[in-house]
Specification:
Number of domains of chain B: 4
Helix content of chain B: 40-55%
Largest sheet of chain A: 2 strands, antiparallel
Low-confidence stretches of chain B: none
Strand order of the largest sheet of chain B: 1-2-3-5-4
Number of helices of chain B: 11
Mean pLDDT of chain A: 76
CATH superfamily of the largest domain in chain B: Succinyl-CoA synthetase domains
Structural class of chain A: alpha+beta
Largest interface: A-B, 40 and 44 residues
Strand order of the largest sheet of chain A: 1-2
Order of helices and strands of chain B: HEEEHEEHEHEHEHEHEHHHHEEE
Radius of gyration of chain B: 67 Å
Low-confidence stretches of chain A: 1-11
CATH topology of the largest domain in chain B: Rossmann fold
Distance between the termini of chain A: 19 Å
Shape of chain B: rod-shaped
Oligomer: heterodimer
Chain lengths: 86, 398
């Protein structure tokens, strides 16, 4: 159970939501088109990295299911294994 | 000891029931449940109240006379006779008349509660909260054994495996289900990481779904800090939980689809972004190239080369003019020279000699003899005529 909490706590990679939001903001910024060329290219590279990140996050995601249980009146979480996965 | 066969006992019961004059002419009031129509047009249904249920069958000939739509939950008054269906070993009411009888008790209690909660504003759209677009943690309140959970997890795994699932297990039918559902909702809602809660249960009869018509369950859903999606039963099933939910889904799978975005769309969005960025940068680079070209052309126009070329032309012109002047002067000089040469030729002694004159010089001094007293007898002279010289000796003085 502590593994689960540790895993949650050490999730430092940006969330998909943040990566996608930044990607879309990057596109808007680029499309306004009044950036110096070097900045535009740097921004483009950043954006391409973000697009890759989004796709990598989806590729590597494994649905994690935890089950709440009450142990001595304390709520705890454990991994849940649905029957078809066992 | 008498031993019955299944058949003989069934037949005995059948005779007993069907011989009873009271059971041969029954008006039965109850609430319709599990109504189905066979392909042959017969109607099968169960009439029930809070304590018991009786199966009923209505043959097509009788069904055709029914002018209203016998629906789930409708309170009815049925007339018929009790008979035994020997093959399955149960008794049933063979209905010849079916009338609506106001609202069934269970259903009317349900409706009263529904109207009360509605009057409290618990169904109002203004209360309903939107679901997060990108949930990180989803709480699910359902039975861990249910097919509904498997469906939900499959949908989520396919659409958005990035989300983490927290399952709050509970019974979803029976008398003990409502307090368990309430406890599960409270437990999952207490979790600060949870972004939204799914309450799901697969299809079932009205009785099986009844836990989701419980007032305490409805109030627990309303009390949740996080938005709640309810997906209970099939498309046509409506429970109180559906009405108080922030989002009502027709089925558990649909609840899962509403709760998470679809990665296929998200990937497409990222691809569109990448394409737009590429186009924007291409435009930006081509703009920069155009600007550079323009500057280069401007610079070319301002180049000293043009001035150098102009000067070179000027020099060419001047040197041509100088050349022409020189030619002119030379020609002039040449013609002057020719004139002088002609005059000189006219003055040449050779021309005089041609006319027959001779030049006489003293041989000793070479001096030209112009006067007689320049010579004396015996002096040797040299005489030049037109075609040469010859010597001569002076014979006598003057």
């Amino acid at each position: 159970m502590s593994d689960v909490q540790d895993a949650a706590a050490t999730t430092k990679t940006p969330s998909f939501e943040d990566a996608l939001a930044e990607l879309e903001a990057t596109v808007r910024q680029l499309e306004e088109g009044n950036l110096p060329l070097t900045e535009a290219i740097a921004l483009y590279e950043r954006g391409m990295g973000l697009a890759q990140q989004c796709s990598d996050l989806l590729d590597s995601a494994q649905l994690q299911v935890e089950q709440l249980t009450l142990v001595n009146g304390q709520q705890q979480r454990g991994f849940f294994f649905p029957d078809e996965q066992a | 000891m008498k031993t019955w066969t299944v058949g003989t006992l069934t037949r005995y019961i059948q005779e007993l029931l069907e011989a009873d004059p009271q059971l041969g002419d029954v008006w039965l009031s109850g609430e319709i449940s599990n109504v189905t129509r066979s392909s042959a047009g017969h109607l099968y249904l169960t009439l029930k109240d809070a304590t018991a249920a009786i199966r009923c069958v209505m043959w097509r000939s009788a069904v055709e006379k029914v002018t209203w739509q016998p629906a789930q939950g409708a309170a009815t008054l049925a007339h018929g006779r009790v008979s035994v269906y020997a093959a399955q070993g149960y008794y049933q009411l063979v209905v010849d008349q079916l009338r609506p009888a106001g609202l069934g008790d269970l259903y009317s209690r349900f409706e009263q509660m529904r109207d009360r909660l509605k009057a409290e504003g618990l169904f109002d759209d203004t209360r309903k909260r939107p679901l997060p677009q990108f949930p990180r943690v989803l709480g699910i309140v359902t039975s861990p054994q249910a097919a509904a959970l498997r469906d939900v997890l499959n949908v989520i795994r396919r659409r958005y495996p990035l989300v983490r699932i927290r399952l709050a297990p509970t019974l979803v039918q029976g008398a003990t289900a409502p307090p368990q559902i309430v406890a599960a909702l409270e437990a999952i809602d207490a979790d600060d990481e949870v972004d939204a809660i799914l309450v799901v249960r697969g299809g079932g009869s009205l009785e099986e779904l009844w836990a989701f018509n419980d007032e305490q369950v409805a109030r627990a859903i309303v009390a949740c800090r996080h938005p709640v999606v309810v997906g209970v039963g099939h498309e046509t099933d409506f429970t109180i939980a559906d009405f108080v939910a922030d989002v009502r889904a027709p089925t558990p799978s649909a609840a899962a689809e509403l709760a998470v975005p679809d990665q296929a769309e998200l990937r497409q969005r990222a691809r569109v972004c990448a394409r737009q960025m590429e186009q924007a940068v291409r435009r930006r680079v081509s703009l920069a190239r155009q600007a550079a070209d323009q500057q280069r052309r401007a610079l070319q126009r301002l180049s000293p080369q043009a001035r150098i070329d102009a000067r070179r032309q000027q020099v060419d012109g001047l040197s041509q003019r100088a050349g022409r002047c020189l030619e002119h002067a030379l020609a002039l000089h040449r013609s002057q020279l020719a004139g002088l040469q002609a005059r000189l030729a006219a003055l040449s002694p050779v021309a005089v000699l041609e006319r027959g004159y001779a030049i006489v010089r003293r041989q000793d001094s070479g001096a030209i003899v112009r006067q007689v007293d320049q010579v004396g007898p015996g002096d040797r002279l040299s005489v030049r005529v037109q075609d040469g010289e010859f010597g001569a000796t002076v014979r006598s003085g003057p």
